[in-house]
């Protein structure tokens, strides 16, 4: 017995040593979660390249059914990669899946880049014309896309994922799915948004599997996939989808589970400064948006002293020299900081201002100001408005002199800019006013409360209106949720302008196109003729009249204009119109529901 034990121990030691070596080797060789995600990315990028090549091979002769099947296969592969391509290579993402609209740089207005990518390809594959010319365009577009994919493959060897970036990219992609995917933004012809959303969510689950996620997170992904899964890509299915229920029951819980998993696993949040705070549980959260993201580096902090000064200056007639006009003359707090006029009076005799007065509520949550987007910061806008002879007619050098003589301002400036030896300056006037306008963020409407869990606060009609807004009516493809303006989700770092074909008057029998050429006047870029920044529809119940020229007095008129297909739908010649010209087919009840939803976007509490 003793001899047996000795022999057993002698045999066991080498065995244990070998086992230890194997376990150590397995631990060393086992890939980290981030490395596993890189493998996932490389695999699907290779598969995307393969499916595009296969599509190209059959594009000339295959049946329309086969073409559409190939298109779907390619889009599905891209949707599994979109979180990473958009995160690391946004320019390539734009060329692969951007809107089917031209682009140009102000420095080279004549160098217009034609649109390219899946949305262009979708128009060919699902359009009404199928001939050799169209087949040639399909082949050409596939070559454009293969160029971008080959670029991504060339970059792949030097691309390194981190756990922090993966979670961040997934979160941003979920925002993209909810805002652009569910609205039909990137599948405007095929109406494949819901099946593609299911693929996006399935890919999200596969990526998260690399991190051995908590059961709750995996369950939320699976539930979300099931909620958007639909058999086929029909218009009826797209229109009938209950987006409000999906967001509250599945999307928000998924985001909450994602945040909780990241915290449990000790994965840091990115430190980047963004429009949506990276640590926000959802972009519907009350403090999700950071107004300082849109401010210049030297912006004044929103201290009580700075805001008190800014509020005083907002109501100060000295800014407009002898006219007596103040900022509050045109931006009236009780009217959601608008004036209720079609266009306000000019200080120049015998004329009016050219454009309608926009709301200042949430005006800070956009990267460009004015209807034509000609300045980036509120400080620039304030300088231009105050010094404009038609609007305020002030001169900053004179304003500072007047304010020094007025009781109280020397003290207000000293308190607001306590570290400066000469606080009452032109620069600080602009900074204080801008800080005050940035304080006018209002994201506490009944809609916001609904999205934060109080599902009893909206009526069935209002919920129906939201679903129409984000679906059949296509409003959400330009007024991006949850800000409902033209600031593009999910980074909100650029703002879009649209050509709507707005008429001069309300006369629908003899309409004429408004002569204001909008953004075109800045750089003379042809496709921007009659383009204007997409404003917010938040608080629109209090901001009539509407459009850049104030032509429509009611939301009913605005919705009727869109329902008819904009200017082209009215019979006007608008070759650059970006608004779809087809009738939307909205019923009277549909229109009433959309208006009810827009009314639910009125912010509650102090204006």
UniProtKB/TrEMBL annotation:
The cross-references to InterPro entries, in alphabetical order and at most eight, read:
Cyt_c-like_dom, Cyt_c-like_dom_sf, Cytochrome_c_Peroxidase/MauG, Di-haem_cyt_c_peroxidsae, Imelysin_sf
Q: Which domain of life is it from?
A: Bacteria
Entry keyword annotation includes Kinase: no
Q: Which SUPFAM superfamilies does this chain map to?
A: Cytochrome c (SSF46626)
Q: What is its main location?
A: other
One GO MF term: peroxidase activity
Where's the Cytochrome c domain?
305-441, 460-602
User: What's the protein here called?
Assistant: Cytochrome-c peroxidase
Q: Which organism is it from?
A: Hymenobacter cavernae
| Localization | Cell envelope
Highest classification ranks of the organism: Bacteria, Pseudomonadati, Bacteroidota, Cytophagia, Cytophagales
One protein family per Pfam: CCP_MauG
| This protein's UniProt keywords | Heme, Iron, Metal-binding, Oxidoreductase, Peroxidase, Signal
């Amino acid at each position: 017995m003793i001899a047996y034990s000795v022999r057993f121990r002698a045999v066991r030691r080498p065995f244990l040593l070998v086992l230890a070596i194997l376990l150590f080797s397995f631990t060393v060789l086992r890939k980290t979660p981030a490395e596993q995600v890189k493998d996932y990315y490389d695999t699907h990028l290779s598969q995307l390249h393969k499916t595009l090549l296969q599509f190209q091979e059959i594009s000339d002769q295959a049946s329309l059914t086969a073409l559409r099947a190939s298109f779907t296969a390619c889009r599905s592969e891209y949707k599994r990669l979109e979180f990473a391509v958009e995160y690391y290579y946004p320019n390539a993402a734009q060329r692969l899946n951007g809107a089917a609209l031209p682009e140009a740089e102000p420095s080279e207005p004549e160098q217009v880049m034609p649109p390219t990518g899946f949305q262009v390809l979708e128009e060919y594959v699902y359009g009404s014309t199928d001939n050799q010319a169209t087949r040639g365009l399909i082949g050409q577009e596939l070559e454009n896309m293969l160029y971008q994919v080959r670029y991504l493959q060339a970059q792949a060897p030097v691309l390194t994922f981190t756990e922090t970036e993966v979670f961040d990219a997934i979160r941003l992609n979920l925002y993209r799915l909810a805002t652009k995917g569910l609205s039909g933004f990137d599948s405007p012809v095929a109406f494949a948004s819901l099946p593609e959303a299911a693929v996006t969510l399935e890919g999200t689950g596969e990526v998260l599997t690399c991190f051995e996620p908590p059961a709750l997170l995996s369950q939320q992904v699976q539930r979300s996939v099931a909620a958007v899964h639909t058999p086929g890509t029909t218009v009826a299915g797209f229109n009938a989808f209950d987006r409000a229920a999906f967001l509250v029951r599945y999307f928000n819980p998924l985001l909450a589970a994602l945040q909780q998993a990241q915290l449990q696993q000790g994965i840091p949040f990115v430190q980047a400064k963004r429009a949506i705070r990276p640590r926000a549980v959802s972009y519907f959260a009350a403090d999700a948006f950071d107004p300082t993201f849109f401010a210049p580096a030297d912006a004044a902090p929103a201290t009580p002293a700075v805001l008190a000064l800014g509020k005083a200056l907002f109501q100060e007639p000295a800014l407009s020299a002898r006219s007596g006009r103040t900022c509050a003359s045109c931006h009236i707090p009780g009217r959601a900081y608008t004036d209720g006029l079609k266009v306000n009076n000019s200080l120049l005799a015998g004329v009016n201002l050219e454009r309608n007065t926009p709301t200042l509520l949430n005006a800070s949550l956009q990267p460009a100001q004015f209807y034509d987007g000609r300045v980036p910061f509120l400080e620039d806008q304030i300088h231009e408005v105050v010094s404009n002879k038609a609007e305020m007619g002030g001169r900053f050098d004179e304003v500072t002199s007047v304010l020094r003589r007025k009781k109280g301002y020397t003290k207000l400036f000293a308190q607001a800019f306590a570290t400066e030896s000469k606080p009452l300056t032109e620069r600080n006037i602009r900074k204080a006013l801008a800080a005050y306008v940035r304080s006018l963020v209002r994201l506490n409407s009944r809609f916001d409360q609904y999205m934060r869990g109080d599902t009893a606060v909206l009526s069935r009609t209002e919920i129906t209106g939201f679903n129409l807004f984000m679906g059949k009516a296509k409003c959400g493809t330009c007024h991006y949720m949850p800000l409902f303006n033209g600031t593009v989700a999910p980074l909100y770092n650029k703002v879009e302008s649209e050509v709507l074909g707005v008429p001069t008057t309300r006369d629908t029998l003899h309409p004429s196109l408004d002569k204001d050429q909008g953004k075109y006047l800045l750089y003379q870029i042809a496709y921007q003729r009659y383009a204007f920044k997409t404003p917010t529809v938040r608080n629109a119940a209090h901001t009539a009249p509407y459009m850049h020229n104030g032509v429509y007095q009611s939301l009913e008129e605005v919705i009727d204009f869109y329902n008819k297909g904009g200017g082209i739908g009215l019979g006007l010649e608008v070759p650059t119109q970006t608004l779809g010209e087809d009738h939307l087919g909205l019923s009277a009840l549909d229109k009433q529901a959309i208006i009810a939803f827009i009314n639910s976007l009125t912010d509650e509490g102090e204006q």
